[in-house]
Write a structure and sequence with these properties.
9 helices, 3-stranded antiparallel beta sheet, mainly alpha, single chain, globular, 6 strands
Length: about 220
């Protein structure tokens, strides 16, 4: 997932996977607001990430949105897999656990961001991991990885265990980290705003229908 938008695209891709896992079917309906809530990004970022996923041949728009229904999407087999290769689909628990961490307020914009979630996920097994291995696993630049590790160390999320090796601190508290970062409550505020947007949209549809000229 290269580039500045790679981490957000990855988070939105995980959100699509979570929706497919939850509803048990694909194609699947998913609005930019729902994807934004699941991925922990704004709906505008989610919409941009969708286009990036389409350009990467990972996602296909099968039915454009209507005034009352969301876009319908279909996940595509990653193009770099060999024909007939077995796609190891993660279990529902793994998908939801990974997606849920990306959506946590600690990894919002102005916090640790999505690249921070990727770095912490690379350490989530509990064993010590070399920073060079985190760089290789996440695809983030080494300076980005080092910066996130230092920031998370100051928050008490990770700790160094040797020259260039890191591990997660037992009992990691992401809620406390979000509070210290000033991003606590961002998800709740986003969901509340989206609820207001949806109510306003439904009201607009009702008024438009009621004022439609009768035949």
């Amino acid at each position: 997932w290269p580039g500045r938008g790679g981490s957000s695209a990855r988070a939105v891709y995980l959100a699509h996977l979570a929706i497919v896992t939850r509803c048990g079917k694909d194609p699947h309906g998913a609005s930019a607001r729902e994807l934004g809530e699941l991925a922990g990004v704004s709906w505008q970022t989610a919409a941009n990430a969708n286009q990036r996923l389409v350009d990467l041949d990972l996602l296909e728009l099968t039915q454009p949105a209507t005034p009352s229904l969301a876009h319908v999407w279909r996940l595509l087999t990653p193009p770099d897999l060999a024909a007939g290769a077995y796609l190891d689909t993660p279990s529902p628990g793994t998908v939801m656990e990974c997606q849920g961490m990306h959506a946590h307020d600690a990894f919002r914009w102005a916090g640790l961001n999505k690249s921070g979630a990727e770095v912490l996920a690379a350490l989530s097994a509990g064993a010590a991991v070399a920073a060079t291995d985190i760089t290789a696993q996440t695809g983030r630049h080494r300076t980005t990885v080092q910066r996130k590790l230092m920031a998370m160390a100051q928050l008490g999320l990770v700790e160094p265990v040797g020259d260039g090796w890191w591990r997660v601190v037992p009992g990691v508290d992401l809620d406390r980290a979000a509070t210290e970062l000033g991003t606590a409550g961002a998800g709740d505020r986003q969901r509340s705003q989206h609820q207001r947007d949806r109510r306003a949209h439904r009201l607009l549809l009702t008024r438009t229908r009621d004022h439609r000229p009768r035949q």
